[in-house]
Amino acid sequence: MTNERDIEKTYSNSQFVDKIRRLADCIEEGKNFEIQIANEKIYVPNSAKFSIEHEREDGSEEIEFQIKWSK
After folding, report:
1. Measured between alpha carbons, how far is 46 from 31 in angstroms, rounded to an integer?
2. 32 touches 43 (CB < 8 A)
3. Cα-trace Rg, the chain
4. Alpha-carbon span 50 to 65, nearest angstrom
5. What is the pTM of this model?
6. Which helix (H) or strand (E) is 29 found in, with range?
7. What is the DSSP string of 4-26?
């Protein structure tokens, strides 16, 4: 059983670009994606579903790139 977790990690522009580029390469190649967030390795299967969410509230806006999968 997996412990619940809700972490938001901020990256520099170059770190973010590197992670997105590695993700895009894995998607194009049909490979699983691996990322470490707050000292935990996360393994994303190539069957994951991708979505983009846009929120607007109280004068601020947010775009979230979401990746979802079941174990």
Report:
1. 5
2. yes
3. 14
4. 7
5. 0.82
6. helix 13-29
7. P--------HHHHHHHHHHHHHH
Tens of pLDDT, residue by residue over 10-33, are: 999 999 999 999 999 999 999 999
Residue with tokens 């004068």: 59
Other C-beta atoms within 10 Å of 69: how many? 11
- What CA–CA distance (Å, rounded) separates 67 from 32? 12
**Dist. CA 63–CA 66, nearest whole Å:** 9
Amino acid at 62: E
Q: 49-57 and 60-68 as β-strands: parallel, antiparallel, unpaired?
A: antiparallel
For residue 28, what is the DSSP state?
Answer: H
Contact of 51 with 58, CB cutoff 8 Å = no
pLDDT mean over 45-69: 96
